[in-house]
Amino acid sequence: MTDTELISRLEKLERDNRRLKGFAFAVLVLSTALATMYATSPIPQRIKAHEFDLVDNSGNIRGSMLFFMGNAAISLLDAQGKRRAAMTVDTSGAPGIGVFDAQGILRAGMSVDTSGGTGIGVFDAQGILRAAMMVHTSGEPGIGLFGEQGKGAIAMRVTPSGEPSINLFDKEGFRMSLGNIGTVIPATGEAHETSAASITMFGNDKKHHVIWRAP
């Protein structure tokens, strides 16, 4: 996985986390709902429905389990009816978990995509991704830290064979890479791979040409 692919996957993690619709401990919600519904009735062997609601003593919905448009979701709400945690499985079979603040903004999320890659995202009070950790299907781990409004970023990764790299991106489009990266020498077209002891700086032009390298 290249550094560009790493950034793309971190951005995909943000999009996936924003699609989260619900979280809860399924057995707890289901068992509590059934206990309320059948406290004075014989317990049936099986219940089939498209939606269950969990309510408190005042009748406020505090949790729900539902199936809608091919998506299965479980949600937990606070006393004011705000969604605070959720768990979903979408039509592709990909699961996701989200945790929300008192304003209903997603603050942390975890997902597993259909290819087996995993990701965790942490968001600020405006719902903007600020930190992410992921593991590619190849087993390659990556970590990303992002500035306000996506301006500036740090991306770290370790390839399956053990080559590490750290990349710094500023808001002007310049980039500095520390460690193992692959570059192409413009004059010859020769591919070059640096070691963990290397530093490479790139310009902010469209092709991000190398402007300095050591060693």
Description:
- This protein is mostly beta strands and 215 residues long.
- The protein has helices at residues 3-18, 26-37, and strands at 51-55, 61-68, 71-77, 83-89, 95-100, 106-112, 118-123, 129-135, 141-146, 153-158, 164-169, 175-179, 182-184, 191-193, 199-202, 210-214.
- The longest helix is centred in the N-terminal third of the chain and has 16 residues, at 3-18.
- The model is unreliable at 21-35 (pLDDT under 50).
Sheet with the most strands, sense and barrel status: 14 strands, antiparallel
Range of helix content: 10-25%
> Number of DSSP strands?
16
Radius of gyration: 23 Å
Beta-strand content: 35-45%
* Overall residue-averaged pLDDT value: 80
User: Topology as H/E string?
Assistant: HHEEEEEEEEEEEEEEEE
Query: Strand order, biggest sheet?
Result: 1-2-3-4-5-6-7-8-9-10-11-12-15-16
Residue windows where pLDDT falls under 50 for at least 5 positions: 21-35
Contiguous helical run count: 2
Structural class: mainly beta
What's the end-to-end separation, in Å?
24 Å
How would you describe the shape? elongated
